[in-house]
Design goal:
Rossmann fold; EC 4.3.1.19; Alpha-Beta Plaits; single chain; lyase
Length: 410
């Protein structure tokens, strides 16, 4: 497929038709004002809460649109999909509503709540590989062998049109929007929303956001065609896609102002911020737009009103626990220190008392006498402290050094 000077594969009329098809199927999700983000960015920020959509993400929009338009013969043949979880749930839910058999390939290590929810909607789930791309290969092979219809997670005009219904809601809920920020994996959601925004509000800035460890779009846009990544490392499994889809790429190349990246630390901080300040549970992929905004705090480069799309909320509680700890550490709320102190009674008690006087709560303590750099008369004490933020953490570190402690900061 050529990507230059071509008509876009999806139009505003396609999106409007999909929206009519989805009437009574999807839930028009709320747009919630975020005072915390607005204060950080210096502009009004609204959160489009697709994490509150049926099946926990925007994916039902595209999956149902695609599957409802299958012929009766195709429906009888069944469908197959590949997904880390959100598309899997969207396909499984749509299949149960339409009376279609569904098989879904999911990566090994897929979040257990996503896997169980997909099975709960009635889909036959098989796990293999470690990426969506590997699962897509297996799904295509299954489709070729059985005649089942492959419901691609992002690379089909009906999928893009269905996701675009979210864009229609955004413009209705925030008609004066100036900036729209959307997380990007394969590109279906961003392509759908940008189709709507460019047709109805061409002045609006559209920004796509990828995890830095799985960012196929920046290189692809620079090359002028989809380029596959050789490796991906990110906790944001919902947007860990190694190659942009041809259909969404053609739209994004024409309509989106930029696709930018955020770090794992930024994703963790954003997830924690949304949990604490907005009382919203999102998965790492769903926090990408908020992470991009937090990275631009006080930079004055984002014109409001801003709509940030929270694309999904399906997160494994165990991962959530790890991310909360990581996010707190990234935000300066956890401080890990190692001290070399005399190996005599009272050294540990004195250290802990000094930490308490600095209003730093002790979370964990580790004792070691086998570190090679220690003398016979020394012991290393590792302490994890809970602090009130980066400024407090810096103040605690400085105060302990002033008291004569020899320490290393992790």
């Amino acid at each position: 497929m050529a990507f230059v000077d071509q008509l876009p594969p999806v139009t505003i009329d396609d999106v409007r038709a999909a929206r009519a098809l989805l009437d009574g199927i999807v839930r028009p999700t709320p747009l919630e004002y975020s005072r915390g983000l607005s204060e950080r960015v210096g502009a009004t920020v609204q959160l489009k809460c697709e994490n509150l959509q049926r099946a926990g993400s925007f994916k039902i929009r595209g999956a149902y649109t695609r599957m409802a338009r299958l012929s009766e013969e195709e429906k009888r043949a069944g469908v197959v999909a590949a997904s880390a979880g959100n598309h899997a749930q969207g396909v499984a839910l749509a299949a149960s509503m339409l009376g279609i058999r569904a098989k879904v390939y999911m990566p090994l290590g897929a979040a257990m709540p996503k896997l169980l929810a997909t099975q709960g909607y009635g889909a036959d789930v098989e796990q293999l590989g470690t990426t969506i791309d590997e699962c897509l290969v297996a799904a295509q092979e299954f489709a070729d062998e059985t005649g089942a219809v492959l419901i691609h997670p992002f690379d089909h005009p009906d999928i893009v049109a269905g996701q675009g219904s979210c864009g229609l809601e955004i413009l209705e809920q925030c008609p004066d929007v100036k900036t729209v920020v959307v997380s990007v994996g394969g590109g279906g959601l961003l392509a759908g929303i940008s189709t709507v925004v460019r047709a109805l509000r061409p002045d609006v800035r559209i920004v796509g956001v990828q995890a830095a460890g799985a960012a196929a779009y920046p290189a692809s846009l620079a090359a002028g065609h989809p380029v596959a990544l050789s490796t991906m490392v990110t906790m944001a499994d919902g947007i860990a896609v190694g190659r942009p889809g041809d259909v969404p790429f053609a739209v994004i190349q024409q309509y989106v102002d930029s696709v930018e990246t955020v770090s794992e630390d930024s994703l963790a901080r954003a997830l924690l911020f949304l949990l604490e300040r907005a009382k919203l549970v999102v998965e790492p992929a769903g926090a990408a737009a908020a992470a991009w905004l937090l990275d631009r705090s006080a930079a004055g480069e984002v014109e409001g009103p801003v709509v940030a799309v929270l694309s999904g909320g399906n997160i494994d509680p165990l991962l959530l626990l790890r991310i909360i700890r990581h996010g707190m550490a990234a935000g300066g709320r956890y401080l890990e220190l190692k001290f070399r102190v005399p190996d005599r009674p009272g050294s540990l008690a004195a250290l802990l008392a000094d930490c308490a006087r600095l209003d730093a709560n002790v979370v964990d303590v580790a004792h070691s006498r086998t570190v090679r750099a220690l003398t016979v008369q020394e012991v290393e004490i590792g302490v994890t402290l809970e602090t009130k933020g980066r400024e407090h953490a810096d103040a605690v570190t400085a105060a302990l050094r002033e008291k004569g402690y020899r320490l290393n900061v992790d």
